[in-house]
Design a protein that fits this description.
alpha/beta, about 15% strand, 7 strands, 12 helices, Rossmann fold, 2 domains, about 260 residues
């Protein structure tokens, strides 16, 4: 017998909402609510969907993904308070919004899953942390993972870890892009053209990651294999160590985690 997939409602068609929609629309029946008319037309045209009202999404979907920005979350919860049903599973992607906050705003026994995806979800390479609220069952958490596995990988975590995870994988792509930006600018400062510098840096990243994934050695071991005593690599690594690169990373992630804690509701 063919398994009947639940209908998933996505509220919000921004970058992450669209990434989720792109990953799951062939695997699940999906309906979407997006207030911005231009975005709504884009989603309807791209994914061959019909735009739905908020009430329609709440009433028709069994699983509802809340994909609005944290600053718009209270307004959204206020709008759906009167339409909440106990059998609905709500999945939030908003940073800093706890499961207990959503449960309190809607109803204490509502089923809530909190997630923290990241931007590479747009190409199916995302990392999503998943945790459940008080009324969410193991099967609810498993179902959330199945959904988000369509846009990358998932990991089930304790909610108390979410602020740290926000600092690591949630914000992490920006650190990688910043490193690429700085690496490329430094290459250009040596006299290389911007196009050549970018090509060298990007392929170095791709190749290094591929080697790391294939060899399954620690990063420190692979670094040692590239670094000959007294050679060019050693000269560069010595500068990174002089400026305590690892300490900079720790301080940066602590700052991100602390900011995440400040935003918690």
């Amino acid at each position: 017998m063919k398994t009947v997939r639940p209908t998933i409602g996505i509220i919000g068609g921004g970058n992450m909402g669209t990434a989720i929609l792109s990953g799951i629309h062939k695997a699940y029946p999906v309906i979407v609510c997006e207030q911005d008319k231009k975005k709504c037309r884009f989603l309807k045209r791209t994914f061959k969907l019909s735009g739905q009202s908020l009430r329609d999404v709440i009433e028709q979907a069994q699983i509802i993904i809340l994909a609005v920005k944290p600053q718009n979350f209270d307004e959204l919860l206020q709008e759906i308070e009167s339409t909440t049903g106990k059998k609905k599973l709500f999945i939030s992607i908003a940073a800093g919004i706890t499961t207990s906050y959503i449960e309190k705003r809607l109803q204490r026994d509502v089923k809530v899953i909190r997630t923290m995806p990241n931007l590479p979800a747009q190409i199916g390479q995302g990392m999503t942390a998943v945790c459940g609220g008080k009324s969410a069952s193991f099967s609810d958490i498993k179902r959330a993972c199945q959904i988000f596995n369509h846009i990358g990988k998932t990991v089930v975590v304790k909610e108390e870890w979410m602020d740290a995870i926000t600092a690591v994988s949630g914000s992490g792509p920006a650190y990688v892009f910043l490193f690429i930006e700085c690496f490329t600018n430094a290459a250009v400062s040596l006299g290389l053209s911007e196009d050549l510098g970018k090509a060298l840096v990007l392929q170095t990243f791709r190749g290094s990651w591929g080697l790391f994934e294939q060899q399954r050695e620690e990063a420190s071991e692979l670094r040692a294999r590239v670094t000959s005593q007294g050679g060019t690599t050693q000269a560069a690594v010595d500068v990174f160590m002089k400026y305590h690169l690892e300490g900079v990373f720790r301080e940066a992630l602590q700052a991100a985690r602390n900011r995440a804690r400040e935003l918690v509701k």
